[in-house]
Design goal:
Strand content: 15-25%
Structural class: alpha/beta
Radius of gyration: 23 Å
Largest sheet: 7 strands, parallel
Distance between the termini: 25 Å
Shape: globular
Length: 464
């Protein structure tokens, strides 16, 4: 793409394509999915859009070096050590932990000299994006910067290119001021000021938007001069894609094998998550065990299908969490299992077709995050459920704002309360379940990914 031609630019850590090297040294490209990919395809190739992203692995870096790429994508070869510091050191180990309120505070965080060293890499990483965007953008172009990895980009880009219309979108929750202020004062101020470099800062729910505004007032003072508009766009499920994809042959095959694992005539409590610390898989298993204790009549009549896919396995705390999920599932199976009944069916290998199969056959979906920006699983299950599905939903998921009325709502820390909610969900009459599922599906698909993206673009242009 010729320089300074892009009218619409998207910036994110992960791009729409990744590369892997095979044994022969050939690069193989793999396309990603998700809301941004749908959104950009909705504006069409003639819109002159460019996606700026980071090379994430050796294959990506080699592709950049060889000049391999595709129209509409610019991949940045940020040095691997700088990317590691910025991505794992700061974005995933600090910013993610703050906004999801996940720290075990007696021991962490401790913002020491090593943190400051990694923070300098985070600045370098954000600057690389700002410079690439400044170079590629046409006069007055719209730039949509994505997520906590790139919080410093809007301000850096504003200084380089005051003519641009800049938006920032946060896909995570935003912490309340008393938690956000764990960060060193100068860092907290820099993060907020980074986003305030945008014409428009947008969030998944009003709650996260309000928390951001509260942090700005608490950290930067009540009279901060800012022309930044705040917006809310609750990303929904892509109904057309999900309904079509969930009835393909591979999904039917997975349904057959899952039904065999569950056993004839039994109900299924399903969860589908990445093994992410915020997803609360361990307390979900504890609640299921509590259900078997409190309501022995469910023994041999229900199975907990837990699809817990690996996430961030390069961080020790995530590996430990995965180990604990496996240990607890094994413990429940040895404690309660009988020759014909395995109480927990745990799958740790990522398999999208199996996820869709589980959505279709679930009697109950358990979505109990400690804290979640939105949680698309809560929105996807009602869309593809065959018979209707009762949703047990944490009040700390962003999706609660839209789905709370027709879900059975839980406090994610309350194991006994969650066990009671599972019992209520399993006992729900079929007609009521079907009715609730219809309403949940309607709410879940109110803002499909393409529209979600176009709405932001339109709002950004209006803000300019």
């Amino acid at each position: 793409m010729a320089s300074t031609q892009a009218q619409i630019l998207v910036a994110s850590n992960r791009g729409p394509i990744s590369y892997a090297l095979d044994e022969s040294g050939t690069l193989k490209a793999k396309r990603g999915g998700g809301g941004l990919v749908s959104g950009l395809s909705a504006i069409g190739p003639e819109a002159g859009a460019l996606w700026v992203c980071s090379a994430l692995g050796d294959g990506d870096r080699e592709a950049v070096r060889r000049g391999v790429g595709e129209e509409g994508v610019r991949m940045l070869d940020i040095p691997a050590d700088v990317h590691e510091d910025a991505y794992n050191g700061i974005a995933n180990s600090v910013l993610w932990f703050v906004n999801h309120m996940l720290y075990q505070t007696p021991l962490e965080p401790a913002f020491d000299a090593e943190f400051r060293r990694q923070w300098a890499s985070f600045e370098t990483y954000n600057r690389a994006f700002a410079e690439a965007l400044a170079e590629e953008a046409a006069q007055g172009a719209a730039v949509l910067v994505q997520d906590y990895h790139l919080t410093l980009v809007p301000r850096m880009l504003r200084e380089l290119r005051p003519d641009l219309r800049i938006g920032h979108f946060s896909h995570t929750p935003w912490a309340p001021p008393e938690y956000f202020r764990m960060l060193p004062d100068d860092i907290a101020a820099q993060l907020l000021d980074g986003i305030l470099g945008a014409d428009r800062a947008a969030f998944l729910t009003q709650r996260w938007a309000d928390a951001f505004t509260d942090c700005c007032h608490a950290v930067l003072g009540p009279d901060i001069p800012s022309g930044t508009r705040i917006g809310v766009h609750g990303l929904g499920a892509d109904a057309d894609f999900l309904r079509k994809r969930s009835h393909e042959a591979d999904v039917d095959d997975r349904m057959v094998s899952l039904r065999e694992q569950i056993g004839e005539g039994r109900k299924a409590i399903v969860r589908v998550d990445r093994t992410e610390l915020s997803k609360n898989i361990v307390r979900g298993l504890l609640a299921y065990r509590q259900l078997l204790d409190d309501q022995p009549s469910w023994r041999e009549r229900v199975v907990h299908v837990a699809l817990a896919y690996p996430s961030r396995q390069d961080l020790a705390v995530y590996r430990d969490y995965m180990t604990e999920v496996q240990r607890l599932a094994d413990e429940i199976n040895s404690q309660y299992g009988t020759p014909g009944w395995t109480p927990v069916v745990l799958h740790l290998k990522d398999d999208f077709a199996r996820s869709l199969a589980a959505y279709r056959l679930a009697d109950v979906a358990l979505v109990n995050p400690i804290r979640d920006g939105m949680n698309l699983v809560a929105k996807e299950v009602p869309v593809v459920s065959d018979e209707g599905c009762a949703l047990v939903l944490s009040r700390e998921a962003g999706a609660y704002e839209e789905l709370g009325e027709d879900a059975i709502v839980v406090n994610p820390y309350d194991v006994v309360g969650t066990a009671r909610a599972l019992h209520e969900a399993l006992s729900m009459p079929r007609d009521e379940r079907a009715e609730r599922t219809k309403r949940l599906a309607a709410a879940a698909t109110a803002l499909p990914p393409a529209q979600w993206f176009l709405d932001q673009l339109e709002a950004l242009r209006a803000a300019g």
